[in-house]
Amino acid sequence: MVRIAVVDDKASNRSVLKDKLRRNPLFNIVLEATDGEDFLQQIKSFREEQLPHIVLMDLEMPHVDGVTAIGTASSLYPSVKFVVLTIFDDDDKIFRAIKAGACGYLLKEESGQVITGMLMNLWESGAGPISPSIAYKILQMVQHPLQIKEDKTNTPDIFLLSEREKEILQLLSEGLEYKEIAARIFISPNTVKKHSINIYNKLHVNSKAQALRIAYTKGLI
């Protein structure tokens, strides 16, 4: 059995993630924490043979954030693998998480099949799970360490979003896929996709991760 810990400050996010993980009978969720502080406190009670093999860690959390928790725990529990699972794809957070000791960086927009598949690869071969878009960013950071890419020509206007679009953003932040969102709010997956495209256009972004990052910083989710 692969022992897994889930750390996220939102109960809905934890619930969705646990549902995805439970599709693989080899995964056993042994710890669930609401933030980095809660995680560090709980893991103290684990004996060496009880420690989680893999910790899925969100980044933006109250009290103790994910990067701080990874930095502290990775030195105390070197056998544990820490994987970031977040909506954020900006270079600074990627760099800080890896520097702190994360062996993987996954975006919440990834499907359950992708997440569980990459975690099994980590367990079986030690291959760090990294979302393709994050892998590309890491490559860019290595090749151009001093280059800062920032586009200030388009300013996102969150006030242009409809209530339905805000609702879909919230559900995307919980890690739901288009089909799951469609079933939740009683519309077709194609309509969900159209709403998502409208969201991207209004926020001047090209991916779910970028849209969710803006929504988070603006307090929409």
From TrEMBL:
Pfam families: GerE, Response_reg. InterPro entries: CheY-like_superfamily, NreC/VraR/RcsB-like_REC, Sig_transdc_resp-reg_C-effctor, Sig_transdc_resp-reg_receiver, Tscrpt_reg_LuxR_C, WalR-like, WH-like_DNA-bd_sf. Residues 154-219 form the HTH luxR-type domain. PROSITE patterns: HTH_LUXR_1, HTH_LUXR_2, RESPONSE_REGULATORY. Keywords: DNA-binding, Phosphoprotein. SMART domains: HTH_LUXR (SM00421), REC (SM00448). Signal peptide: none annotated. SUPFAM superfamilies: C-terminal effector domain of the bipartite response regulators, CheY-like. Residues 3-123 form the Response regulatory domain. The modification 4-aspartylphosphate is found at D58. One of its GO terms (biological process) is regulation of DNA-templated transcription. GO terms for molecular function: DNA binding. PANTHER family: TWO-COMPONENT RESPONSE REGULATOR. This is Response regulator transcription factor.
